[in-house]
Amino acid sequence: MRVIIVELTPGRSIGLGPSLADHDVACARGIDAAIEILRTSEPEVIVLDVGTESGPHLVPSPAEAFQRLADAASGSRIIAVGAGDEILVQEMLSLGVFDFLTYPDELDSLAYAVKRATRVAQLERRPSSGGGRRRLTEVVPGIFTGDPTMRRVARRCERLVGHATRVLLQGEPGTGRKTLARMLSQARRSQSAQALGHGLNGGAEPGGANGLLPPILPCSASTRISDIDDLFDRVRTTPMISSSSSLGPLVILESIDELSPETQAALLRRLVEAETIWRDRTALPRTISVATENLGSRIAEGLFRRDLYDRIAEVHLCLPALRNRSDDCVELADWFLQRYQQTLGRHRLRLSDEAIDAIRDHDWPGNVAELSNALKQAVITAEGPSVRASDLGLSSGATTRLVTLRQAREDAERDIVQRALKRVNGNIARASEMLGISRPTLYDLLNKLGMR
């Protein structure tokens, strides 16, 4: 299936089937029906039939419909067709719709637009090779990627800017958690672009004066509730911090899954009291919580409270590790190579085939930060024009290819999980029962395998 036509309001739909008679087309009457189809298949193009009339009476709105479709099918291109004024068209284009064709004037262009969107989707899904790798795109300020999973996370994060929502960012260190936290701390999207400057993924480069992170509390087993209370009091009473955003004061709780059970219970009481006794969520600063990739396992083992998780994770974003991001590691290595040549006064360096193989084979436990350091070291120490694996501090590809047990295990896990999800139409609860693991453990496994 290459194209799905989604009728936003079936009673007012245009009827776009005849315009796409030459395509492999399925039709969904309503957003809920479309989401059900997208649970088991991801088309190259989705055509959203907004209808023959538009206005605030439409439920869901075209923007809401687009966001639901984009979340459900991150690799598909979405074209909107329907009646609409310039304001609606600009709104949809700013959200990321591939194109908006107004009805009836531009209906004749639909077949060409679908053909063009299909071509783009096919190019992005084409397997990477040494000479035709997926190119990086700055999906949000400071995050460069060509990986569909990371692109989806970044788009969801961008939509949260300007909303007073408690967000949980989960992932390994160096995956870009602080970069996204900095963006979420801004009151408007225009501010986030200015504040982030040109940092890359793991936040290796600081933002400008307006892009400083809110106060951060590194949490550990020894962190006490008094430490959190002191931070909350400080951001509420310090004018420069408390008035820095129209959304009110904000703090970042880093490694929150490392808190002791006693501190978790006390923090939960603070959050519950603000909502039930004081009846004022703004009595406490808004929180962005950062957790490691092991959060789900810690919840399943009873080491982290599920009720606290429900309070701090109104929105939960899982960032994939660099090793699970398609060919991003090689593309980012090229980017860092050019950057450090400029800053360190080297010229005409290039990555050898041996170095590219070693970069692909390495697990990068330190993610983008580790990759950045390896390229900086290589630019300084490389003796010739070609950067070798040893310049990066890595073993050559001939050696690393012998160590394939981890990759084989991950491939086997990915295959089993994919088959289980397909069998139950993507239902996480039923899939976890079938696999004999808890739901949080399955979420961790999906995150580790880059499948979320």
Summarize the structure.
This protein folds into four domains: 3-125, Response regulator (Rossmann fold, 3-Layer(aba) Sandwich); 142-318, P-loop containing nucleotide triphosphate hydrolases (Rossmann fold, 3-Layer(aba) Sandwich); 327-400, Helicase, Ruva Protein, domain 3 (Orthogonal Bundle), CATH 1.10.8.60; 405-448, Arc Repressor Mutant, subunit A. Helices cover 45% and strands 13% of the residues. It has helices spanning 31-38, 62-72, 86-95, 110-125, 148-160, 177-184, 189-196, 225-237, 239-242, 261-276, 295-300, 306-312, 328-344, 353-361, 367-381, 397-400, 405-423, 428-435, 439-448, and strands spanning 3-7, 25-29, 45-51, 77-82, 99-102, 137-140, 143-145, 167-170, 216-218, 250-254, 286-291, 315-318, 350-351, 386-387.
Characteristic terms for this protein:
alpha/beta; Rossmann fold; Helicase, Ruva Protein, domain 3; 5-stranded parallel β-sheet; 14 strands; about 15% strand
